[in-house]
Amino acid sequence: MGRAFKFVILGGGVAAGYAALEFVKHGVHHGDLCIISEESVAPYERPALSKGCLLPEGAATLPSFHTCVGIGAERQTPKWYKEHGIELVLSTRVKSVDVKRKTLLSAAGETITYKTLIIATGARVLRLEEFSVTGAYANNICYLRDLEDANKLVQVMDMHKGGTAVVIGGGYIGMECAAALISNNIGVTMVFPEHHFMARLFTAEIAAFYEDYYMKRGVNFIKGTVMAAFESDENKNVTAVVLKDGTHIKADMVVVGIGIRPNISLFEGQLALEKGGIKVNGKMQTSNASVYAVGDVVTFPLKSYRDMRRLEHVDHARKSAAHAVQAILSSDKVKDYDYLPYFYSRVFTLSWQFYGDNIGDCVIFGTLKDKKFGAFWVEKGQVIGAFLEGGTKEEYITLEKIARLKPCITDMESLARLGLSFPFDF
Ligand code: FAD
Ligand code: NDP
Q1: Distance, CA 244 to ligand 1 centroid (Å)?
Q2: How far is the CA of 260 from the centre of ligand 2 (A)?
């Protein structure tokens, strides 16, 4: 015999926390909603793991960053879930799902049934073991996806203050962890295959600003190559990273951020998939009418670009979760999800935001030397993407408006000269 719920959220990350908040806003009955999570703690704001949690002093710890503090809403501690009659099933991995029978089976053998399921399983990190890298199982190699990873990273950093680290990967994790390592007095060499870091979003010119900033703080870059092996001591601790060309880099620790894969395996052969994610419609509903999916795991219609996309960012996790709950509870009144992509990062004392899409011609404005600059992406005569470093609250609001309204542009020179002051014709 198992338990039965009207609504089950599978996964206990960012999207789960925001979905729970939306259920509560709509007045969910006690005992109707259950969240099942492999993690041992209630949903939290995952971005804190590579920022506040890695500070050398006054580091953030739970319960301070449980959802939904990221939008200035209530901090949902386990007590909050209890008070609202939401069953929080933690430290429980679901090992199979039968969407026809509306049943989940936990690794411990418990069966849970639902009327409506929300999949919020997020993603897992890609590991170097998967690429058969020699020595990839050593102790002091750190990844960063969940609280356990963050605790290990902090512990390993504490052991090697004054030492050196190699960061593998030039994406978000690489960029944010390299900054955190430097702040913790650990020297950093970054190794990645692209010609500049954050290659999926930054142009070479934007990346050059950040790379220069990092180099002035002692970060060394080795670009256009990948690593081949780790050398370890008798205690299975990495002592050096060996690159493809044979170069040895001494290292007391390693941080790896080489991308993620959405957790979709439970649903392969049961739900329609697209572009590596679970395919949903504008209501976040999957190919099975009783199953919704949200966050990193979904490939959804990005209405304004008439495209199907999968996004791995917190704003989309929060908004798609709220949207799914609204659609479940009052489907006929809810319009299709109309999302404007929004990404951001904070490293050292720098902070940037991006809205929209980064295709077309890139026009840089402002001065890199004053740490106040931005970029517009112009496609077929319209501004469709906007990036800004060091902006004010008002400027970021303008940035969002530009990307949302996609104003027409003919005078690119004036756009570059005037930046956000350009007289956009909205
Ligand atoms: P997740 O938050 O990953 O949650 C998935 C949950 O599902 C987890 O609790 C997992 O344990 C659980 N789960 C999976 N499979 C099972 C199973 N079979 N059984 C039970 N439970 C299961 N984005 C930004 O926009 N800005 C940032 O600054 C930023 N910083 C980040 C920093 C870090 C270190 C990381 C890792 C990500 C960051 N992101 C950031 C990305 C953002 O956190 C994700 O987009 C967001 O967490 C996605 O939410 P989600 O709920 O879809 O997945
Ligand atoms: P990203 O996809 O951002 O970057 C991965 C990087 O690693 C890419 O530059 C990739 O290159 C490179 N790479 C791939 N394979 C190798 C390899 N074998 N050796 C060296 N480099 C390699 O993923 P991250 O791991 O940085 O981040 C994980 C997730 O966390 C993402 O979903 C991200 O959005 C999220 N995150 C978001 C943050 C934010 O929004 N501020 C902050 C932290 C995490 P290539 O492109 O060529 O594959």
Answers
A1: 31
A2: 7
